[in-house]
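dumping this here so i dont lose it
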């Protein structure tokens, strides 16, 4: 599916707007015109992203007469989107100039030669000073170069239906202090309301990276067994934390406290959760991201005016309330310049327009993002945009980021396979641990692996 925006200098209807955009953007490299090809995911609730690209494309064409923007939205769920983008990026004939890039893929895509470093452009862009240190770090490769500009970030926690919990005898506001509290609440909901799915925990290959990050890693990082040890720069073997996390998944699915495996393994399950299961009162607790409520705002895919009075938010507890007591995971997406872009300056200029203050504000509000630009985070309209933004922003102090190294995407795929086997009873948690350790050593080598903490 391809959508092209062509706005020539003759067609400009507002010279003052065009002049303002040109003044705000970096100087054009010598060229008489051309086309900027932009590839991004257009699947499920990504309405705001699609609108942003259309807006930015029109603004770019007005700011730079003679230039047009060729939008190439990719209608695919997360993992198929990554695959499609990789295939496009392998050849100069098909590679996009601008890529909608997940932060955890920066190093693997850099190693594959798909991304262009942006340091020389960023130092000349005044907007770069608005970004947080964490947002800049998320786009940094192991070589120290920056490979994209943050569109926003996120945290993860527990969404819950206040009414359904109260019917099950659970007091609200609800803040579980351990995994046992979560399992207990799910069991009470199952007993009180047989027709309701007690809890959603993404698992298996169907929902891709959501299974790794929203699901398994939200448990794992609540133990003493993370994927990577940044102090020794080694990957950690699976140990007690892995076993506990897989046992939690086994319990939830084995006791029918989660969705049926048939539903949970459906690639469309993530969309169904936000668009149907939660708004229709079919799901009581959802371990998910800060962006979920963006499905419910006016003009979104599933408008739900009552959501802020129905839904509550809680932090995910660590296994037994140890350490910080709470845990979250954060990620985010970037706009990056492709290595095959024939005019990288103009490609970067598109990013400066797409992610200026006004467009970033539009996107972060509409997509339910936690702002990474200071001038967006401080905007009154952003602060008032969502009843959940305060809660999910409060998770930042105890959040974690995935180890964004070249090997992580492959390890994530293995996690998806293992959690799928455990949730369906094809493997025990102990077998899952053994499978991961064998795969880890074969992938990265024993010299880059350390034993799991006791």
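and the seq i came up w/
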């Amino acid at each position: 599916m391809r959508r092209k925006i062509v706005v020539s200098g003759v067609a400009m209807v507002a010279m003052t707007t065009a002049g303002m955009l040109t003044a705000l953007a970096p100087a054009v490299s010598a060229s008489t015109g051309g086309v900027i090809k932009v590839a991004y995911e257009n699947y499920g609730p990504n309405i705001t992203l699609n609108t942003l690209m259309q807006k930015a494309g029109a603004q770019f064409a007005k700011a730079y007469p003679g230039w047009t923007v060729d939008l190439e939205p990719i209608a695919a769920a997360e993992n198929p989107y990554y695959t499609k983008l990789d295939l496009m990026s392998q050849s100069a004939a098909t590679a996009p100039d601008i890529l909608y890039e997940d932060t955890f893929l920066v190093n693997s895509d850099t190693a594959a030669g798909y991304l262009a470093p942006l340091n020389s452009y960023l130092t000349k862009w005044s907007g770069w000073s608005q970004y947080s240190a964490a947002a800049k770090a998320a786009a940094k490769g192991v070589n120290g170069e920056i490979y994209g500009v943050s569109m926003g970030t996120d945290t993860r926690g527990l969404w819950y239906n206040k009414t359904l919990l109260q019917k099950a005898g659970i007091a609200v506001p609800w803040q579980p202090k351990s995994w046992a509290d979560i399992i207990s609440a799910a069991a009470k909901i199952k007993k009180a309301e047989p027709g309701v799915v007690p809890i959603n925990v993404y698992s298996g290959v169907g929902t891709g990276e959501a299974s790794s990050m929203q699901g398994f890693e939200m448990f794992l990082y609540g133990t003493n067994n993370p994927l990577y040890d940044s102090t020794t720069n080694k990957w950690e073997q699976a140990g007690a934390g892995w076993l506990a996390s897989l046992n939690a998944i086994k319990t939830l699915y084995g006791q029918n406290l989660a969705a049926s495996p048939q539903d949970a393994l459906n690639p469309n399950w993530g969309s169904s959760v936000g668009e149907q299961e939660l708004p229709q009162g079919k799901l009581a607790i959802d371990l998910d991201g800060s962006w979920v409520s963006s499905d419910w705002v006016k003009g979104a895919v599933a408008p739900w005016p009552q959501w802020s009075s129905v839904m509550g938010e809680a932090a995910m507890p660590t296994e037994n309330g140890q350490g910080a007591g709470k845990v979250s995971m954060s990620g985010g997406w970037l706009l990056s310049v492709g290595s095959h872009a024939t005019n990288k300056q103009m490609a970067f200029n598109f990013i400066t327009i797409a992610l200026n203050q006004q467009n970033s504000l539009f996107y972060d509000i509409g997509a339910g993002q936690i702002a990474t630009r200071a001038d967006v985070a401080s905007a009154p309209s952003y602060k008032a945009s969502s009843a959940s933004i305060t809660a999910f922003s409060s998770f930042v102090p105890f959040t974690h980021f995935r180890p964004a190294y070249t090997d992580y995407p492959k390890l994530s795929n293995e996690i998806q396979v293992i959690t799928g086997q455990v949730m369906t009873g094809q493997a025990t948690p102990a077998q899952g641990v053994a499978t991961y350790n064998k795969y880890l050593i074969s992938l990265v080598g024993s010299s880059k692996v350390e034993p799991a903490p006791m």
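The chain is about 40% helix and 15% strand.
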